[in-house]
Amino acid sequence: MSRLCPAVVRPHRLAFAIAALLPFGTAFAQDAATTTAEKEAATLDTVEVTAQRKVENIQDVPVSISSVSAEKLDVLGSGGNDVRFLSGRVPSLNIESSYGRAFPRFYIRGLGNTDFDLNASQPVSLVYDEVVQESPLLKGFPIFDLERIEVLRGPQGTLFGRNTPAGVVKFESAKPTRELDGYAQLSYGTDNMWNFEGAIGGPLSARWSARVSALYQRKDDWVTNTYAAGSSDGFEGYDESAARVQFLYEGDAFEGLFNLHKRHLNGTARLFRANIIKPGTNDFVPGFDKDKMYTDGVNFSELDTWGGSARLRWDLGDYNLYSISGYETAESLNRGDIDGGYVYTFDFNPADGTDAGQPLIGARFPSESADGLPDHKQITQEFRLESDYAGKFNWQAGVFYFKEDITIDSFNYNSLAPGNPRAGHAVQEQENTAWAAFASGEYDVTEQLKLRGGVRYTQDKKDFSASVLEAAPFGAPVGGPYRVSTDVNDVSWDLSAVYALNDDVNFYGRVAKGFRAPSVQGRLLFAAPTAPNGGVSTADSEEVISYEIGVKADLWDKRARLGFNVFRYNVDNQQIIAVGGGSNIATLLNADKSVGQGFELDLEAYLTDSLLVTLGSSYNDTEIKDANLTVPGCGGGCTVTDPSVRDPLTDLPIGYSIDGNPLPQAPKWVHNLTARYGIGMGEGAELYIYTDWAYRSEVNFFLYESLEFRGKSSLEGGLRIGYAWNYGDYEVALFGRNITDQTRIVGGIDFNNLTGFINEPRTVGVEFSARF
Q: How far is 219 from 516, CA to CA, in rounded Å?
């Protein structure tokens, strides 16, 4: 069956044609051979998820959850986009990056982490094929040949454990089957973009089957360096490849799934552009040209990751025993001109051809840096026992082990000297060991009421050290090692109830506690020479209590599906980071309290048998509550709107109060809309039109509020027109991403100039796919 256009399937499989191009994998088009009298009304298929570590109908799970099908992922990923294309595609989800494709940062309900260090922990956990991906560099593994993605909102610490106070983004690869099948997909588009992915799988013997999947993406540089002496003449291109091989063994009472995967990325680091923001506003400066840059710096991003897992299951009659073993490793080097370039001197006054139309904010300074991960490994092991009783009560329990060792190299280069010589080198090392024991159960009180509960005990230990091997001209002197050790334990839990009003409508309520262990940060090259412990900072543990109630319903004889909930959460001791700015260093802090509240809506419906529409919407109102917390503002050029705080003894300014501010990168509104219309073109053929739109409201880039570093609201859309034939085995499509070519500043660097980075430009192309 075609993943992009399964609306035409072989008559021996179904009496009508099924198209699965939307989040819950259901769209309908009548088979051309079926007469008008035989037509059946289009209805939605059941969506199965594993949010509770077992297969369930999404409508029965007492969690705010969205499932994104493989069919929709194919559409959204057109044009070679990386994992950030999921941002805004489900309620309350935002994804951004200051590293480009290498290091995505996830936010759910406003909770995330803007920290750009390579050992930064995030309150949103990414779980790929049941293995947690802790390092930020592991979270960007390309999206290809997946069954689905599940986004679980709210604390998920009972069953998933590692850093889940905000939620979980869960990836499930397509598995080997007992039938020979596969696909190949090739697209070409703007800026010499090539995108290939494919898979083949099937039986190897009576017990063994396998599946091999691969992806290759490339794109030429589309930004020209107009500085003649620059070390590069173009930016924003990339060359990326990834592969996955899986082996499945199916015995009488034993099943084993073995997974090996690898990724290689060679491309451009995030392109920082100095002085692109008009002072006193969040507008671009007049004459801004996104296709040009003016820098003398070196810019590249190199990343290699690989790993493997073994997922084993023993059928013990009334019980199932699971073992999930995982190993991940990454190696990277990412270098960019952090001060935003030599200068930003495009033709702001094209009439006379001069570059003098825009005054520059901030003096030039040597801030070209590189971060590398020369040594990294992660080992995880889980054992879980699950009951399989026929009665009213079932349970699962297990133990979990996690160990991560990392080494981070930080370099600074003097971009004002010929050849950009190195001028600073620091090293961070961290060992993180954690273990947990967990249990959960569910009880059918009546046929209508089901209760669930779970608890997890976690012990987490970090040993961190950092040293300056070569001092930067503006940072800490040679010294170290500066050491920090943390050792904490915590109990996370959740309680929920589901009440079935009837066969089609479920009400649910849930309260859950989440936890994130302490974080340590040591970017010593930018620390003040007098900073305590060399500039190493620590944020203590944070805890989240979340409350939500909601309804899930199948409507109009299963022609529509609704999910709606309202929520509120309180974060005690929230980990936050003051990045750059006037302090010239990233410093970890704890806010006394943060709160968030809002609602989430998921809706899909057949408006006609040929038109399927989905709507997602969320409102998130977040607020930092800490009357005594201050952070430095920008290093110059920006207009901070928060109250200035002065030292009562010296009357010198010590920062800005952020009490009452929203969390950074936390849009109040997120909306998404998709629509697909199919037209039968004879037996086994279909023409379809698909469009998708994602909106997010304004966001702050930093903890403090300023006029310049507040991103404007964003609305990006996609369009796809496709024709499939031979019952969906073959398809050709025209596609466009960001079809309005909207340009937005999506992040900033707040040293002493108004530096920002922007979103991806419009991409158009053509795609051909074949399936068997």
A: 38
Distance set, CA 592 to CA 123, 544, 660 (Å): 17, 12, 12
DSSP 524: G
Closest CA to 41 of 698, 606, 708, 671: 606
Strand duo 223-225 + 292-293: pairing: parallel
Q: Is 770 helix (H, G, I), strand (E, B) or coil?
A: strand
Distance in angstroms (rounded) separating the CA atoms of residues 696 and 716:
9
Between CA 221 and CA 268 the distance in angstroms is 9
How far apart CA 314 and CA 252 sit, in angstroms, is 9
DSSP string, 277-328: BPTTSSSBPTT--TTEE---S--EEEEEEEEEEEEEEEE-SSEEEEEEEEEE
- φ, ψ for residue 192, nearest 5 deg: 55, 45
DSSP at 273? B
The yes-or-no verdict on residue 571 having pLDDT over 50 is yes
**Helices and strands: H and E segment counts in the chain:** 1, 45
Q: Which residue has the higher pLDDT, 346 or 473?
A: 473
In this structure, are residues 327 and 351 in contact, taking their beta carbons and an 8 Å threshold? no
3-state secondary structure 441-469: EEEECCCCEEEEEEEEEEEEEEEEEEEEE
d(CA 543, CA 545): 7
636 close to 753: Cβ distance less than 8 angstroms: yes
At residue 75, φ and ψ (nearest 5 deg) are -70, -50
- 707: CB partners within 8 A, 6+ apart: 280, 281, 282, 638, 639, 641
The mean-pLDDT minimum among 302-316, 339-353, 422-436, 519-533 falls in: 339-353
d(CA 690, CA 674): 7
Q: What is the 3-state secondary structure (H, E, C) of 31-91?
A: CCCCCHHHCCCCCCCCCEECCCCCCEEHHHCCCEEEEEEHHHHHHHCCCCCCHHHHCCCCC
- For residue 408, what are the β-bridge partners? 428
The closest of 39, 151, 37, 83 to 602, measured between CA atoms, is 151
- φ and ψ at residue 132, rounded to 5 degrees: -65, 140
pTM of model > 0.70: yes
d(CA 263, CA 102): 11
pLDDT in tens, 203-247: 999 999 999 999 999 999 999 988 766 667 889 999 999 999 999
Closest CA to 361 of 454, 466, 276, 252: 276
Gap between the Cα atoms of 454 and 498, Å rounded? 15
Q: How far apart, in whole angstroms, are the C-alpha atoms of residue 598 and residue 568?
A: 7
Q: Tell me the C-alpha distance between 89 and 696, whole Å.
A: 10
Interior CA angle at 76 toward 71 and 81, to 5°? 130
Q: Which whole number is the average pLDDT over 434-460?
A: 97
Please tell me the predicted confidence (pLDDT) of residue 27: 35
Report the DSSP pairing between strands 630-631 and 686-696.
unpaired
Query: Which tokens in the block code for residue 433?
Result: 């060991």
The Cα–Cα gap between 761 and 427 comes to 36
Burial (CB count within 10 angstroms: exposed 0-12, middle 13-18, buried 19+), residue 391: exposed
Burial class (CB in 10 A: 0-12, 13-18, 19+), 50: middle
d(CA 136, CA 105): 7
Reading the block at residue 116, the tokens are 């750009």
Close Cβ partners of 390 (under 8 Å, ≥ 6 residues apart): none
Q: Which residues pair with 714 in a beta bridge?
A: 696
Neighbours of 331 (CB within 10 A): 15
Write down the residue that tokens 């552009």 correspond to.
273
Distance CA 672, CA 677 (A): 17
